[in-house]
């Protein structure tokens, strides 16, 4: 009955429109009070849920992403990618996906990259004759790779909740699957463009932009992932310290190289990043109440054991989890999903002796698919608003992109080495 009250109360609050962090805390607090577990434990539980060193990286990576967005890095990356690929049918969707992958190596947030790349690419794609719904679908799907390509806020949260998987190991493990997912999206995006005659082919006499000139303008943006990941690999700084280095690097590029940042813009960026970070960390802190209640009441083990005892084997369980998490990812962001479900999922992974780093990559890929799967895809909400279209209009196009990402996910499931080779080679 207590378990029903806990989960039933949480879903009832969600349906009533209560923010997810408050719904988690209220459901947990009610159960703690009813069960007599000690209501005065709530303040300590909230504090300990947030007082974790790796979480310090989140506000700094959010700040870094916003700084690079305002600095014009995305625009310069687009020009460089167009110079390399050239102007042909399907070029702009491919450029959008590649640029989103690079931006993922800076910010680690899908909605943030959706906004940054969407602001640059939407107008260009519309001018070339790409439909609004197609444009929103491609950019929203491309931005979903950002929670796989390091630095990733989702990986940081996963590491906090699963100490056996370190942040450097997860960052390294997400690199190849993230690139694989991006390349998988390029294929249907280009195919749909050519099949439907979207985009223009370069006109006769039209000169191709100088690759060298575009490269010189984009080099500072291209170097950002190298500075962040290379510094961590060289042992110069930890992932948390890397977030600070990345923010300083972004300010340097914006003020002294591109000269696009002003003090007023920096103030606005600080305010916006503080608001976004506060939302994420408040959800983390309040979810600690829910997690403490579930752990103290002992409701996790029966649920995990019930899933294991379904008699469908480890691959059947994995398929079930994939289907469930993709659906959940349509409605909840990755951070909230991890906070709610990881206490149940990790015991299942341990039962089947799955590598927890590989398991983290698999879970994150599932959530990435949910970020651009209608009806409540967070990335598509952003890109549809920018493109001036509706979520319903994207269904025709986004289905092929979802299929491509599923194939990339299947490859990582069947061949775990795609995720585990790099961290093992680096000694993580």
Task: Pick out the low-confidence regions.
Answer: none
Number of strands: 0
H/E element sequence: HHHHHHHHHHHHHHHHHHHH
Whole-number total of structural domains: 2
Overview of the structural elements:
The chain is mainly alpha-helical and 428 residues long. It has 2 domains: 1-37, no CATH class; 53-425, no CATH class. The chain has 20 helices and no strands. It has helices at residues 2-15, 20-34, 42-50, 57-71, 73-85, 91-104, 110-127, 132-143, 153-161, 167-196, 211-233, 239-257, 263-297, 300-308, 313-331, 334-351, 356-370, 378-387, 395-414, 417-425. Helix 6 packs antiparallel against helix 7 and helix 11 (211-233) runs antiparallel to helix 12 (239-257). The protein is globular and about 70 Å long. The model has no long low-confidence stretch (mean pLDDT 82).
Describe what is shown at a glance.
The protein has about 425 residues and is mostly helical. It is built from 20 helices and no strands. The longest helix has about 35 residues, at about 265-295.
Q: Topology, pairings included?
A:
Blueprint: H1 2-15, H2 20-34, H3 42-50, H4 57-71, H5 73-85, H6 91-104, H7 110-127, H8 132-143, H9 153-161, H10 167-196, H11 211-233, H12 239-257, H13 263-297, H14 300-308, H15 313-331, H16 334-351, H17 356-370, H18 378-387, H19 395-414, H20 417-425
Helix pairs in contact: 1-2, 2-13, 3-13, 4-12, 4-13, 5-6, 5-11, 6-7, 6-8, 6-10, 7-8, 7-18, 8-18, 8-19, 9-16, 10-17, 10-19, 10-20, 11-12, 13-16, 14-16, 15-17, 16-17, 17-19
């Amino acid at each position: 009955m207590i378990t029903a009250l806990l989960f039933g109360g949480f879903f009832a609050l969600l349906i009533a429109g209560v923010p997810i962090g408050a719904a988690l805390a209220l459901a947990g607090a009610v159960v703690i009070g009813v069960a007599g577990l000690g209501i005065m434990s709530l303040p300590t539980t909230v504090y300990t849920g947030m007082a974790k060193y790796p979480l310090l990286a989140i506000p700094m990576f959010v700040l870094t992403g916003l700084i690079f967005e305002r600095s014009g890095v995305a625009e310069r990356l687009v020009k460089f990618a167009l110079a390399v690929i050239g102007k042909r049918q399907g070029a702009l969707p491919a450029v959008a996906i590649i640029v989103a992958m690079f931006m993922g190596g800076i910010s680690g947030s899908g909605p943030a990259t959706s906004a940054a790349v969407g602001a640059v690419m939407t107008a260009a794609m519309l001018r070339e004759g790409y439909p609004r719904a197609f444009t929103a679908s491609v950019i929203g799907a491309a931005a979903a790779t950002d929670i796989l390509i390091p630095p990733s806020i989702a990986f940081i949260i996963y590491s906090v909740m699963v100490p056996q998987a370190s942040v450097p190991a997860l960052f390294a493990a997400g690199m190849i699957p993230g690139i694989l997912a991006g390349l998988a999206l390029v294929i249907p995006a280009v195919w749909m463009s050519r099949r439907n005659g979207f985009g223009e082919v370069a006109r006769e006499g039209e000169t191709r932009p100088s690759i060298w000139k575009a490269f010189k303008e984009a080099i500072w943006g291209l170097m950002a992932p190298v500075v962040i990941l290379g510094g961590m690999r060289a042992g110069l700084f930890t992932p948390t310290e890397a977030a600070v280095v990345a923010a300083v690097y972004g300010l340097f590029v914006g003020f002294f190289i591109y000269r696009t940042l002003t003090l007023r813009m920096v103030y606005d960026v600080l305010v916006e990043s503080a608001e976004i970070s506060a939302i994420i960390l408040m959800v983390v802190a309040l979810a600690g109440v829910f997690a403490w209640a579930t752990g103290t009441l002992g409701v996790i083990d029966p649920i995990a054991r019930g899933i294991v005892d379904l008699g469908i084997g480890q691959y059947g369980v994995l398929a079930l989890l994939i289907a469930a998490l993709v659906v959940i990812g349509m409605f909840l962001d990755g951070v909230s999903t991890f906070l709610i479900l990881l206490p149940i999922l990790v015991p299942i992974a341990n039962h089947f002796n799955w590598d927890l780093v590989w398991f983290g990559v698999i879970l994150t890929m599932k959530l990435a698919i949910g970020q651009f799967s209608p009806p409540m895809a967070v990335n598509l909400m952003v890109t549809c608003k920018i493109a001036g279209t509706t979520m319903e209009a994207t269904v025709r196009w986004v289905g092929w992109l979802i299929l491509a990402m599923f194939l990339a996910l299947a490859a990582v499931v069947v061949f775990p080495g795609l995720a585990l080779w790099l961290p093992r080679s680096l000694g993580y």
